[in-house]
Amino acid sequence: MKSPLRFASALLRKLKNRTGEESRTSYEQESLRLLAENCGDVIFRFGVDGQARYISPSVKRLFGCSLKEIYSMGGNVVENGFVYEEDQNALAQAVQGHFSGKLPETKLEFRVKQRGGALIWVETNCSTVLDPKSGRPTDIVFTMRDISEKKALEAQLEAFARKDGLTGIANRRAFDEAFEREWRGALREDGALSLLIIDVDCFKAFNDANGHQAGDDCLRTVAAAIAEHAEQEGELTARYGGEEFAVILPHTDHKRALATGERIRFAVEALAVPHPDTAVSSVVTVSVGVATAMAASGGTIEMPHGLLQAADTALYKAKTGGRNRVEGTLLFSPREAIQTVA
After folding, report:
1. Residue 115: C-alpha distances to residues 21, 60, 118, 146, 172 (Å)
2. Domain check: are 166 and 314 in the same one?
3. Which of 117, 127, 120 is nearest to 145 (CA)?
4. Which among 55, 182, 186, 212 is placed 20 to 30 Å from 23, CA to CA?
């Protein structure tokens, strides 16, 4: 049997160790609490019922409302009134994937509506919490941060990637994407799509006589004049290459497309940019090729390229016919002949 003195000594050592462990545990818990409260990221923990188990206080900075308000809404991870409607389905699928055990970790980007109505982009890293005994998913842990500045920068870079550096209008890449997209829209709506290809008449002679700087200024001026006549929804003015421009006109029949081409031709001539080194006119002019395709009769996947070729054929006719004029072709089908329209 231990003596009372030895027993008391052992008890004191045990209590001292326990006090040290409890103190260390308390310190770690306090550190985690301070980290969660002061971190710019927001931490969420949701159960299988979609309800919040824990939300860090930093949510107020991100969402613009207090913890109490969020909890009073039920805290549902998807149907909480904060996730932007268009992004709710993707988030719901991710949550379902986590709780089914198919998606242990994932990273999502979606939009959140703040209390004041502002829309921000957030990035969320999601992890699944498993029951140690059954191995089944019990919770999801989200860490969420504001990436609005990053998305804004990405949008700017994307816009720059689709803009012509000289003229400021859309470039060839933007044209190609819009051309395919608008044709698919014409197919869905059983409508028409018109295309204008515009060439600055005798531009090489202008450039040789006036220098490259004057040539660049001329292209910028012409581009601005053309763009003024393609401002409706879906319409696009692009620099197609060199001194050639293209205008996409959705929902536009051939008669109206020809009229638009004529307005552009007249607008450029009215700029009265001197161009004495050409037999066409004393000022800068353009030739315009117009083509229209009817989805009802030309509804094939190859059609957009046929429309482009038809507009180019019409432009060639305008140039060989004396320049400073508009010519058009109406495309019924890529398998049929093209009817030339004066």
Report:
1. 43, 10, 7, 15, 41
2. yes
3. 120
4. 55
pLDDT score for 119: 92
234 and 302, same domain (yes or no): yes
Task: Please give the positions annotated as active site.
Answer: 243
Average pLDDT, the chain: 83
Instruction: Extract the tokens encoding 151.
Output: 């998305």
Range of the domain at 105: 29-148
Percent of the chain with pLDDT over 70: 80
What predicted TM-score, i.e. pTM, was given to this entire model? 0.67
Q: How far apart are CA 338 and CA 115, in angstroms?
A: 58
Look at residue 76 and tell me if it is in a domain.
yes
Predicted local confidence at residue 339, as pLDDT: 43
* Cα separation, 227 vs 245, whole angstroms: 10
Nearest to 311 by CA among 259, 258, 241, 251: 258
How many CA atoms, within 13 angstroms, populate the side-chain half-sphere of residue 108? 24
d(CA 142, CA 342): 64
What 3-state DSSP class applies to 251? coil
